[in-house]
């Protein structure tokens, strides 16, 4: 169900739909007549593509929030453009669940029969069903590798053909579709009147039709397509054929949620025609004024320096599998959080490294703060009052930002600012200062930071060894042994026992080359991305600062 429109059309049409560009006059009913639903107010305001403004997110029930997500057309590997949308909405889903107490029922449709699937299957000399099964499983594995929670249920198009046929029959019976002598069924857009265009207002002009088209109007779209020779088909009242594109999602969503849907999500390129046509189909079938209450759309992933989005048709994509060979999923997740889910986002190696270093910095702070709590890190006096105030301020800022259309850039900035203030207090000193220590405030900060990252699907555990394979573990063990050996050498060089003052001075002079060698080793390891921090009375502490 992930389809694309031309780049120029997408850029011109959807900037204002996402609320990111200048507003323009609309002759259609976009935003007019939107009915604010009754039910549970989540406390969140979301940018609703139906109204082009931030609306209070009110769901039918906090115990059963209905969410439909357009799924993949399974004919090839998923790429980062797909992944970006799914990861962004996965973060929103986690926040609604864990922060705002919503129990979400998510349905995702899988398009497992389609022109692209049939074409690719013919090229590979396999059946469309076999090809679709392979890439559906491939998609699910990619999503799991990216830590995207699976939907409550996946529903395949091919397993719901009788239901799709019944849905089409209902639209015909209600006077909004017609069949042709060729065995096609089309939705009659003109029968919709000025209600068509809820998402985009003025719809783009229809693409020129071939001379043998059997549509009444060029803007009409297919609900059922007659089978071509050698194509897979199903029997129907209109002859052998298969479903059109848009009818799939309308039927699948209605099967589970009926005539009312809380949230519908997808990439912004799906707003027109796909989501617009879904709305038209569902509202005429259910004979309701408003089928979907909130439409959330994510911005495109662009290759940096190129205004074109990442897509297979443009051949500028990176598969999820290839990406995960270079970076772990948590880095990509933080990368997605550094921009609004509605905005376009530039992908580059440098932007991924920035996200990686932020994640390592967060993990390093948690590790240092935990060492301080254990009494292993010797620090100067802690301004405990400052840290308590900063923690309270951060919690309030984060909660407000999450409630404001999931403003993740503001959230990330607040968390990193808290870490910055914590690091300023963890100043290593040579001697244990007098006075009380302040482990409780650092314990609270650690708990909050780890809980936040866990909420959005990121683990701070073992961020130093991001690849997580056996060779990385072996390398870490070797470095630990090297650091322990360096510590013993350093302790020997500094030990003077009960010798006289003159003897101690002579020992230090003789052992100075050992201390210099230890310092040189420490500096050389930094060049390889390994830093060593001195912990009180323990072996020095190695950290992988880069890979």
Strand order of the largest sheet: 5-4-3-10-11
What is the share of helical residues?
A: 40-55%
- Rg is 29 Å
- How many DSSP E strands? 15
Proportion of β residues?
5-15%
Oligomeric form: single chain
Nearest-integer average pLDDT: 87
Shape: elongated
Helix/strand-derived class?
Answer: alpha/beta
Largest sheet: 5 strands, parallel
What distance lies between the first and last C-alpha atoms, to the nearest angstrom? 37 Å
Order of helices and strands: HEEEHEHHEHEEEEHEHEEHHEHHHHHHEE
Low-confidence stretches: 2-14, 21-29, 464-470
Number of helices: 15
How is this fold's topology laid out?
Layout: H1 7-14, E1 40-48, E2 53-59, E3 65-73, H2 80-98, E4 104-111, H3 115-124, H4 128-145, E5 153-156, H5 161-173, E6 177-179, E7 185-187, E8 221-226, E9 241-243, H6 245-257, E10 261-267, H7 271-286, E11 292-298, E12 301-303, H8 320-324, H9 329-337, E13 345-347, H10 349-373, H11 384-403, H12 408-425, H13 439-455, H14 470-494, H15 501-527, E14 530-533, E15 541-544
Parallel strand pairs: 3-4, 3-10, 4-5, 10-11, 12-13
Antiparallel strand pairs: 1-2, 6-7, 7-8, 8-9, 14-15
């Amino acid at each position: 169900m992930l389809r694309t429109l031309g780049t120029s059309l997408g850029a011109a049409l959807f900037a204002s739909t996402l609320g990111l560009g200048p507003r323009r006059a609309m002759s259609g009913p976009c935003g007019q007549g939107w009915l604010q639903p009754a039910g549970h107010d989540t406390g969140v305001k979301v940018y609703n593509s139906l109204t082009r403004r931030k609306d209070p997110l009110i769901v039918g029930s906090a115990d059963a929030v209905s969410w439909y997500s357009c799924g993949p057309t399974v004919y090839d590997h998923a790429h980062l453009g797909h992944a970006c949308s799914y990861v962004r909405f996965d973060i929103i889903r986690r926040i609604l669940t864990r922060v705002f107490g919503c129990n979400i029922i998510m349905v995702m449709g899988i398009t497992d029969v389609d022109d692209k699937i049939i074409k690719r299957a013919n090229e590979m000399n396999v059946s469309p069903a076999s090809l679709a099964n392979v890439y559906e499983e491939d998609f699910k594995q990619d999503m799991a590798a990216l830590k995207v929670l699976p939907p409550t249920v996946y529903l395949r198009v091919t397993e719901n053909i009788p239901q799709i046929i019944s849905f089409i029959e209902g639209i015909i019976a209600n006077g909004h579709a017609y069949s042709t002598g060729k065995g096609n069924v089309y939705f009659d857009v003109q029968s919709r009147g000025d209600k068509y265009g809820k998402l985009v207002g003025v719809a783009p002009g229809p693409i020129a039709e071939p001379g043998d088209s059997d549509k009444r109007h060029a803007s009409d779209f297919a609900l059922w397509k007659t089978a071509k020779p050698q194509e897979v088909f199903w029997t129907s009242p209109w002859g052998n054929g298969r479903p059109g594109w848009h009818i799939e999602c309308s039927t699948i969503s209605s099967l589970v949620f009926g005539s009312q849907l809380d949230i519908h999500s997808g990439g912004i390129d799906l707003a027109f025609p796909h989501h617009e046509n879904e709305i038209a189909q569902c509202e005429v079938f259910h004979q309701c004024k408003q089928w979907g209450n909130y439409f959330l759309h994510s911005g495109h992933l662009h290759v940096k320096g190129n205004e074109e989005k990442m897509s297979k048709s443009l051949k500028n994509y990176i598969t999820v599998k290839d990406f995960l060979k270079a970076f772990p999923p948590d880095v990509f997740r933080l990368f997605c959080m550094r921009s609004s889910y509605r905005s376009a986002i530039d992908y580059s190696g440098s932007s991924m490294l920035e996200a990686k270093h932020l994640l390592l910095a967060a993990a390093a702070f948690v590790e240092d703060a935990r060492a301080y709590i254990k009494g292993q890190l010797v620090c100067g006096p802690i301004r405990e009052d400052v840290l308590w105030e900063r923690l309270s301020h951060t919690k309030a800022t984060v909660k407000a930002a999450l409630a404001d259309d999931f403003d993740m850039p503001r959230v990330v900035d607040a968390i990193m600012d808290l870490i910055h203030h914590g690091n300023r207090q963890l100043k290593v000193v040579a001697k244990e200062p007098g006075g009380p220590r302040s482990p409780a405030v650092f314990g609270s900060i650690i708990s909050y930071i780890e809980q936040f990252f866990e909420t959005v699907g990121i683990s701070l555990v073992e961020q130093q060894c991001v690849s997580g394979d056996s060779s990385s573990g072996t390398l870490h063990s070797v470095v630990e042994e090297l650091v322990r050996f360096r510590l013993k050498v350093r302790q020997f060089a500094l030990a003077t026992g009960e010798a006289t003052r003159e003897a101690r001075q002579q020992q230090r002079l003789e052992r100075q080359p050992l201390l210099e060698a230890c310092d040189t080793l420490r500096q050389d390891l930094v060049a390889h991305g390994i830093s060593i921090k001195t912990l009180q009375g323990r072996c020095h502490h190695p950290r992988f600062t880069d890979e």
